[in-house]
Fold this sequence. Notes:
This protein is mainly α and 260 residues long. The termini are far apart.
Amino acid sequence: MKPPVSQRRVARTPLDKLERYYHQAQRYAWDVDSLGWDEHPLVPRADADRWRVFWKSVIDQQLQADRLAVEAATKLLLRVQEREAKLYYGTMVQDEARHLEGWTRLADPLPETGDEDPYLEQMGQMVMDGETLEEQVVTFQVIFEGLAIDAFRDIARSAEATVLGAMADQLVRDDSIHHNSGVAYAEHLLDDASPALKKHVSGVLKEFAPLYIEHARWRPPARSWLARRMKARDEAQLERNKHTVNEAVTDLGLDPPYDL
Ligand SMILES: [Fe+2]
Ligand SMILES: [Fe+2]
């Protein structure tokens, strides 16, 4: 006889969780065509030039992030060994490729801004060139994707009844799976990791931490007028994010990267 659901949950290993996320990701896979392209405007206040440029710069930044995410997820798929991890990362590569398709289709008809976040690029390269699988999973999925979820919630709230808002809603769900699977896999990888490996990963997180702050504060010229007005709110969010990161990382038995 199968144990009751509550006990089955307690008995789950991190790799069992990863397999569950593989099935969940398949179930939730969606189509970019389904975002309401013919029913809704692409972005809020699409008839005003200033707002078209503003939202385009938001989209450009997400496009940049998902261009890096496709590469990072592919690196992980090639690197992982466990059967559950191979299955799971196959779905994550597909998700990130779908995100890239969505952002590209949103970006194409909107004005060119040409602004790229240099700190995001540096963080992406750090993940890509990561010496250990552990540091790649923690920086990319536990930290970066974990913090992206709230940002997508924010976009979804401010862009209701637009294609951008529909896309952000899907990304909240996808990146919740990406983040939770990363936490589960990091638990598996770090469970019996040597003190030297944990020290190495903690060191990488210390280097990653200031880059994340620069990235969070970076605003392209197209958004500088609003950034000034939002400064206090953005700084408060950044403080909350630092606490979130410290908590997530110490839960994995690593050193907190931010001095708070
Ligand atoms: Fe993504
Ligand atoms: Fe993701």
